[in-house]
Amino acid sequence: LQAWQEQVPVMAYDRIMAVQAGERLVLARRIREALDRQEFELHYQPIRRISDGRIVALEALLRWRQRDGGFVPPDVFIPLAEASGLIVPIGRWTLEQAAQAHGRVAAHGHHDVAIAVNVSAVQLLADNVPEVIRDLQREHRLPRGALHVELTESVLLRQPQVARMRMLELRVAGVGIAIDDFGTGFSSMTYLRNLPLDSIKIDRGFVHQVHADERNASICRALIALAHGLGLGTVAEGVETAEELDWLRRNGCDQAQGYHLGRPAPLDKVIESIVEAA
Ligand code: C2E
Ligand code: MG
Ligand code: MG
Ligand code: MG
C-alpha cells in the first residue's frame, strides 16, 4: 500500500479514500477490463467566448458506463487509474478520440473549435504526452491549436522540472495549455510567472453565485486581474445561471463553461447543436 500511496497525487488520494477499500480493488480490476470492452466514452462540453457566445473549444470528459448499466464518475475512477498506471493507455485513447473529434467538427465547417483534453499529472510524467500529440497531429493533419490540454496544479508540484519541459514541448507543438480548477490547489505565483501557460480555468467553487457572494466576487476579480496582468486568458467553470454569466461579462472574464452554456453530451449531439446555431 505504501508504494501505491506514493504514486497518488495528494488531492486525488482523499477522493480515493472516500471509496471503501474492497470496492477500490474491484474497481481497479474493472478499469482494466473496461478499456478492452470499450466501456469508456467521451462527452464534450462547450467552452464559449463570453463577448459573443461563440464556441471556442469543446472539453472532452470521460464517461464510464458499465455493462450492467452502472455509472462510475471520473472523480472516482481517474485517481484509481492513476494509481494503477492505467491512466497512460486511457489517456492515449482519450487523445486519439479528441483528434478524431476535431476532424469531425472541422468537417462541419468549424475548423477553429479546439478540443480540450484533461491530462492527468501521472500521465504527463509517466508518458511522453508531447510526442503522443505530435504523432496525432501528423496522422490526423491537425492544425496548430486544434488540441488544448488542461492540467491541474498537482502536476506542477510533483516534478516541476519535468512538467515544465513537457509544457514547453507542448507549446512548441501549438497546444494550448490551461490550468484547471485554478485556486483549489496550491496556486503558486511562481509557476504562473514561469510556466508557458495560455489560460487559467477559475474553479467553479469561486464562480458559484459570484453576482451575490461578495467573497467569491473578490476572488474572481483578483484572479481575472492577475491572469490578464500576466497575459493569460480566463475561463470561468461551472456557470449555472444567467446572473453569474452577466457578472463575468461585466468583470472582463474571457470565456465560460457550465450547464447554463451547454451540458456535456455525446459528440453527435454537440455537433448538431453547433450546426443548428450557426
Ligand atoms: P474538470 O476538468 O474540472 O471538468 C469539469 C467538471 O465539471 C466535469 O465533471 C463537468 O461535467 C462538470 N461541470 C460542467 N459544468 C458544470 C456546472 O455548471 N455545474 C456543475 N456542478 N458541474 C459542471 P466530470 O465530467 O464529472 O469530471 C470531473 C473531473 O474528472 C474533471 O474535472 C477532470 O478533472 C476529470 N476528468 C474528466 N475526464 C477526464 C479525462 O479524460 N482525463 C483526465 N485525466 N481527467 C478527466
Ligand atoms: Mg478540465
Ligand atoms: Mg475544472
Ligand atoms: Mg475538476
Automatic annotation (TrEMBL):
Protein name according to UniProt: EAL domain-containing protein
Q: What is the lineage of its organism?
A: Bacteria, Pseudomonadati, Pseudomonadota, Gammaproteobacteria, Lysobacterales
Superkingdom of the organism of origin: Bacteria
Domain named EAL: which ranges?
24-278
